[in-house]
Amino acid sequence: MGTFAVLLGPPLLAALLAGVVNPYRRFVGWANGLLSLLSVAAAVTLWRHVVAGQVLTSGSREFLRADALSTLLTLCVSVVAALAAWLGPGMGDDDGYDGAQARRFRIFGNLFAVTMLFAVTSNNLGFMWIAIEATTITSAMLIPLHVTKASVEASWKYILIGSIGIALAFGGTVLGYFDFVNLVGRHDEALNWTTLMASAPHLHPQVIQLAFIFILIGYGTKAGLAPMHTWLPDAHSEAPAALSAMMSGVLLAVALYAVIRWKIVVDAAIGTEFTNHLLIGMGLLSLIVAGFSLVIQRNYKRMLAYSSVEHTGLMCVGLALGPLGTFASMLHLLNHTVAKSMMFFLAGRVLHRYRTTEIAAVSGLLATMPWTGGLFAVGMLAVMGLPPFGLFMSEFALFRAGFVAGRPWLMGLVLALLTVAFVSIIGHLNRMLYGASAGGVPVGERPAWPLLPLGVCLTTLVVLGITLPTPLQTLLDRIVEVIGQ
Amino acid sequence: MDGMFSQLSVLGSSLVLIFGLILLWRRGVTAYIAAFRWQSIVLALVTAIVAYFAADHELYWVAGALLLLKGVVIPGLLKRMERRFPAERELDPYVNTATSLVVAGLLVLFGYAITRPLVALSQLPTRAGMPLAMGLVLVSLFVVISRKKALTQVVGFLMLENGLALLAILGTYGIPLIVELGVFLDVLMGFLVMQIFIYQIHETFESIDVEQLNHLRH
Q: Which of A70, A145, A263, A435 could form a disulfide with A66 if both were Cys (CB 3.0 to 4.6 A apart)?
């Protein structure tokens, strides 16, 4: 009980505090930052329990439950939420946001974090759905923090497409419940994941297949899988940096988590072949769409957004490649969370200085902001999957899994698509880093302190690229056990 | 007894679907709001019928909540928005009326096709209505894709949710009450946020025609 309260309570408290203190005061931001660290500590406690072989639950009928899979997601969400709390609007003097905007960010940003944390710890798949729907609402409120034509357009597309996707996922949840009810009758715990799993082998194959199609299209929309990804580049590029980091770094992962939860049920009912084919199909399509959209990209925030579509597609393919692939895919999820949230914060710094998201208008980044530019360049190399960074290791593991699973052609195609992305990103990056400094752009790093946590992110990526610490290895092994049961 | 229950539920589901089809051939937002209001009232009625025949008292609460939220509160808010933008009519949708109706017919047929295993599996007297609910889900999805006014899209989205609620009632006599309450809360919050955005679209673009929302490409 206690651990879950410390996990979910602090962001809720921070949102409440920001709501009560009107107009916004700086101490709200500080309190938010300190509270966010409590959530991280709770997630680490869950991790320690998982490594010790325990599954923590709380409430009647195991209302909240944190197995290895949930724990990985709580770690990712709480860390990125903490980054957003420290680096978000309302901490510095000249961050481009006024008090009202900072207050709004503190309220909805924290509610966004709570809904994501609740989604990944709820044992009841109905509540998981409610929480993921709520993530759409809370995050949509923050996209037009600066009201412009572009941000209004992006927020409309996001709320409409996101809500419809989520509604379809609700249809899938209802169909899954329908299947269960026909098997054992109506029953309040029927939507509990553990209850569903217990009777999964007897579920009706055709009905559960139909349910999974709805689930995959529905939550896949939120996860940014092609062809339902159309809202994603708009929303991620127009949102304020801290929100982009949360959306790209963890919201996509949370939606993918929902797909995985259902995949485990469906696999227990009818074997892995059906879900694997669908995941490979969607994953490949996402890689294709993202790869070729990166080629024609003129906007660096959209470039990062499409790169997220690419990596989500890669994770889907990995999930379909057996235990080794699952291991690689989950490691990739962690790496992507660290790398992409860092990149969006850096992009926010670049945008704040250059006042434009056009790649062509940002030149001489290394001369203008040597540290930010340097981190951006190195981070981009990490995102592209070069050694010695974590994403190289997870992509390498994923390819190995593909060859072990006897799918060399699939792996060849994936590699070709990753190369397309690689070449185009390198080109864009070159244009931004070098050349004459754009006129009228002040030189130097002010404020410089946000670079410290971002440097820690990069260090983490390097560590993950060189070694796999034992606790992490154990966590991932346990996730593979959960998904393969 | 079961025969009457079965017939009433199919009759109710057909009405719910027909109110959904009104979106395809009427042009005025007033008609859409009325269609949504009546659809929600019939949906609440179907829920009450299931509550009566299945002797499930919890479902009366769900029916009551449906009636209040989707029959009164949300149509009221939609009306208020409509008064703010009186000139907004769906004059030139992406797909014309005749084609839309043909597509809707095909979608309902498709709804029948994909729900066949469900109808075959279920023992409930209400099972014959499930294909109609699925039909409404697909038709509403088509409305959202093929119409240009933000307000029409919102009504289409709300009808899609009605279709899913109908599917849940007919197939399982409703999902667990506590989950249902959460869903209602989400629907209301989601609708309120959409309403805020429609006002924002109107302020920034001076119209709620989503065709203008085309600045963000690639």
A: A70
* pLDDT reported for residue B88: 67
Residue in A with minimal Cα distance to B145: A161
One domain for residues A117 and A161: no
A134 to chain B, any CB pair closer than 8 A? The answer is yes
Place of tokens 């393919």: A317
Give the mutation candidate from A147, A186, A217, A296 for the B interface (greatest B CB count, under 10 A): A186
Q: According to the model, what pLDDT value does residue B203 have?
A: 85
* pTM, rounded to two decimals: 0.95
Six-digit token string for A328 = 């690689």
Number of Cβ pairs < 8 A linking chain A and chain B = 132
Phi, psi of B91 (to 5 degrees): -85, -35
Q: Does residue B171 belong to the interface with chain A, where contact is any CB pair within 8 Å? A: yes
Sequence-ordered list of residues with C-beta below 8 angstroms from that of B70, at least 6 positions apart, any chain: B36, B40, B43, B44, B158, B162, B187
CB atoms within 10 A of CB B94: 11
Q: Are residues A10 and A41 in the same domain?
A: yes
Torsion of the alpha carbons at A278, A279, A282 and A288, rounded to the nearest 10: -130
Where in the sequence is the domain holding B183, given as residue range(s)? 2-211
Query: Considering the domain boundaries, does residue A79 fall inside one?
Result: yes
Q: Do B189 and A134 touch (CB under 8 A)?
A: yes
Using a CB-CB distance cutoff of 8 angstroms, which residues of chain A are in contact with residue B215?
A: 149-150, 153
Residue B216 lies in a domain: no
Nearest-neighbour CA in chain B from A139: distance (Å): 11
Percent of chain A topping pLDDT 90: 76
- Give chain B's domain count: 1
* Total Cβ atoms within 10 A of residue A388: 14
- pLDDT band, very low/low/confident/very high, at A146 (cuts 50, 70, 90): confident
pLDDT tops 90 at residue B214: no
pLDDT tens digits, B128-182: 999 999 999 999 999 998 888 888 899 999 999 999 999 999 998 888 888 888 8
Q: For residue A238, which residues of chain B lie inside 8 Å, CB to CB?
A: 216
Burial per residue of A415-451, b for 16 or more beta-carbon CB atoms within 10 angstroms, e otherwise: eebbebbbebbeebbebbbeeeebeebeeebeeeebb
CA distance B208 to B195: 11
> Residue B148: helix, strand or coil by DSSP?
coil
Do A266 and A328 have their domain in common?
A: no
Is B141 in CB contact (< 8 Å) with chain A?
A: yes
Structure tokens at A274: 């059906």
CA gap B198, B150 in Å, rounded: 7
Question: What is the span of the domain harbouring residue A254?
Answer: 145-271
Q: Please indicate whether, in this complex, the C-beta atoms of A177 and B168 are within 8 angstroms of each other.
A: yes
Put simply, the answer to whether B216 touches A234 (Cβ < 8 Å) is yes
The beta-carbon neighbor of B160 closest among A133, A164, A233 is: A164
Q: How many domains does chain A have?
A: 3
pLDDT at position A459 over 90: yes
Residue A137 lies in a domain: no
Separation of CA B16 from chain center = 8
Q: Does A160 touch chain B (CB under 8 A)?
A: yes
Whether A310 and A225 map to the same domain: the answer is no
Which pair of tokens denotes residue A268?
């227990």
CB A162 within 8 A of CB A136: yes
Residues A111 and A176 in one domain: no
